[in-house]
Automatic annotation (TrEMBL):
Name of the protein this chain belongs to: ROK family protein
One Pfam short name: HTH_IclR
Secretion signal span: none
Positions of the UniProt region annotated as Disordered: 1-25
Family note: Belongs to the ROK (NagC/XylR) family.
Record-linked InterPro entries: ATPase_NBD, Recombinase_CS, ROK, Tscrpt_reg_IclR_N, WH-like_DNA-bd_sf, WH_DNA-bd_sf
Annotated HTH iclR-type domain residues: 38-79
Length: 415
């Protein structure tokens, strides 16, 4: 279809946008982009001088000096020593200021809550994990528990003189762009205004409170800190009681039009003559339904039950090994559909899949290779997350850092 470009009518100002026409960037847009550009360069280098930044970014020295001055004033960069330059004069080095801000991420799931706090460099300041019966609690009780955990972290950061950048929450469910949980069946939530209720429980804090799907935020963490950090095309699978996917496409997290992309667990597959959803055949609930020795697994016992399955698999119990092989093939069949659609470089197994990867991984890889249309699965590899169960919470905290890297700079209190 040809694209029609409309001519500007007489007297129409540059500020008046035509349908489909990109808005012209103004000075503040350009400066914000440049602030983020400089910050990312310093982050990548570790430490560098203003002259280094001018050489590497292509910006002139006066512009770099102005940008650096603002970043220092905003407590984003700091001067951290000096080195002797080529002509003998010392060059002042710059680094990311890790001593002032903190970003908080929390995950609420069926059997636990995890909280991670990071500084501007992504260093972990806190990493807490608490048992939580998410499936047996009302939404209100879960919000109270979330608020209590977050308040403890805020108090700790306050005692260290740190300013909170924001609080983001990871939830295993479908969350719209306004932070309303449309459906979180594993938690029993429906049409629940999580961010509104959490802000109320925390007495309307000055920083932003947001929420997103746990798989989305796990993908954010993997892209920044995982063994495949920086990869442009990746799928992250949660591997908790539910099965969701976070999608990194062309270097960006893709949420879809209303935030509901990545529901890989609902795809239909056929394995051994049976047709059903990927989640029903290959989700952690399917593992426990088939292999748990308990008749009724309580929400707070999921991790213990998975560990029991691992112990039995290590002992070579035939029923367990055979079932995990079949579950791995089912997972591979679902991954193959996603790989054919998105052509990622890596599919990362997170959550409880990490513990089970020795048995389900090879079967999934074999099925992926057999089912994908492209030879060699289009170059996709199935890999195991190195971030553990805290990946979604870490991604929640990391998303706030990504906003700063994009040029949305914080303002220190008192300015």
């Amino acid at each position: 279809m040809a694209m029609r470009i409309a001519a500007k009518s007489a007297g129409q100002s540059e500020a008046e946008e035509e349908p489909g026409r990109a808005k012209r960037a103004d000075f503040t847009d350009v400066r914000a982009n440049n602030l983020g550009f400089v910050l990312r360069q310093v982050r990548a280098e570790g430490r560098c001088s203003r002259a280094d930044l001018a050489a590497k970014t292509g910006l002139n020295k006066a512009t770099v000096s102005s940008l650096v001055a603002e970043l220092i004033e905003r407590r984003v960069l700091r001067e951290s020593g000096s080195v002797i330059g080529n002509i003998g004069r010392p060059a002042v080095l710059l680094s990311v200021d890790t001593g002032y801000y903190a970003s908080l991420g929390v995950e609420v799931n069926v059997d636990y809550m995890t909280l991670v706090a990071v500084d501007l460099a992504g260093n972990r300041l806190l990493s807490w994990r608490r048992a939580h019966d998410g499936s047996g609690s009302t939404p209100g009780k879960s919000v109270s528990a979330l608020a209590g955990l977050a308040k403890r972290a805020v108090d700790r950061m306050d005692s260290e003189g740190r300013q909170i950048l924001g609080l983001a929450v990871a939830v295993p469910g479908m969350i719209d762009n306004d932070g309303v949980v449309q459906r979180a069946p594993m938690l029993g939530w429906s049409d629940f205004d999580l961010t509104g209720r959490l802000r109320q429980a925390m007495r309307d804090p000055k920083y932003a409170v947001t929420a997103d799907n746990d798989a989305n935020l796990g993908a954010v963490a993997e892209q920044r800190f995982g063994s495949w950090a920086g990869v442009s095309n990746m799928i992250y699978l949660t591997g908790e009681i539910g099965l969701g996917a976070g999608l990194i496409v062309d270097g960006e997290l893709r949420r879809g039009a209303t935030g509901f992309a990545g529901e890989i667990g609902n795809l239909l597959i056929e394995v051994d003559g049976r047709v059903g959803r990927v989640e029903d055949f290959a989700g952690i609930r399917a593992v426990l339904n088939e292999l748990s020795e308990s008749e009724d697994v309580n929400g707070t016992e999921v991790e213990a039950e998975v560990e029991d399955v691992v112990t039995r698999a290590r002992a070579g119990e035939p029923r367990v090994v055979e079932a995990l092989d079949r579950i791995g093939r089912s997972l591979g069949a679902g991954i193959a559909l996603a790989v054919d659609l998105l052509n990622p470089e890596a599919v990362v197994l997170g959550g409880h899949y990490q513990a089970l990867s020795t048995w389900i991984g090879p079967a999934a890889e074999t099925e992926l290779a057999a089912r994908t249309h492209a030879s060699g699965a289009g170059g996709a590899e199935i890999v195991v997350s190195a971030l553990g169960h805290e990946a979604p919470a870490l991604g929640a905290a990391t998303g706030i850092l990504n906003d700063i890297d994009a040029g949305l700079m914080p303002t220190p209190l008192g300015r």
